[in-house]
Amino acid sequence: VQAKWKRLASEGSAHLDMFEHISLMTLDSLQKCVFSFDSNCEEKSSEYISSILEPSALVTKRNVACRLVHDFTDAIIQEWHCTLPDQGLDDLLKTKAKVKTLDFINVLLLAKDEDGKELSDEDIRAEAESFMFAGHDTTASGLSWVLYNLARHPEHQECCRHEARELLRDHEPKEIEWDDLAQLPFLTMSIKESLWLHPPAVSISRCSTQDIVLPDGRVIPKGVLNVKGMSIWVSEQEGARVEDGRKGHI
């Protein structure tokens, strides 16, 4: 590393990134000690070295990103804390009732446990951010797959379009509202079919709260994390098992 620094200095380099050079020197030395391998990573790039260094950078970026997200959510919570006393709970509920919406953050701010205790700001932030992260990508990917599948099957796409147009024929305003969804059975089935084919959630996990004895005698012990790693919707091969499940069997 000294020879490298001398060469860089002679080439006119006035500033040297000490951490980068020391990291490469350390990795090079460890590879010699652990693997008896001379990587020469101080002089040439290596995919292995890059894969070692990248996670460290990702951790830093993750911490920065998490802090930015937390700061944003905290600012929203504090803004509502200031708004509620000025506006009053009754006025807020009346305003929300007019537009038929009650924001998730409002629900959390107004929520109380069985003892009448309100949620802490940390609890509200955790719930709100979980709702955002869990809902954003899954909803976006789910809707994208719905559009993709409808594009592949234009005859079904036309059925969905016809159903929506018929609903809105004498509808005022010309917008589909929550109460109208029950009148769109074909569109509903199309969405469910797309979710069955391409589920946004690739797996789910549950921790058993007690020993579970399966019909064949096997036992799932209490405290075991059970992961459904394949599609959370059953495959065609499992269809018969679902019918059995409705009769109390797995």
Automatic annotation (TrEMBL):
Q: Show the Pfam families listed in the entry.
A: p450
Q: Which SUPFAM superfamilies match?
A: Cytochrome P450
Query: Which GO-annotated molecular functions does the record name?
Result: heme binding; iron ion binding; monooxygenase activity; oxidoreductase activity, acting on paired donors, with incorporation or reduction of molecular oxygen
Entry-linked InterPro entries: Cyt_P450 (IPR001128), Cyt_P450_sf (IPR036396), Cytochrome_P450_Monoox (IPR050196)
> Which protein family is named in the record?
Belongs to the cytochrome P450 family.
**Protein name as it appears in the record:** Uncharacterized protein
Give the organism, scientific name. Equus asinus (Donkey)
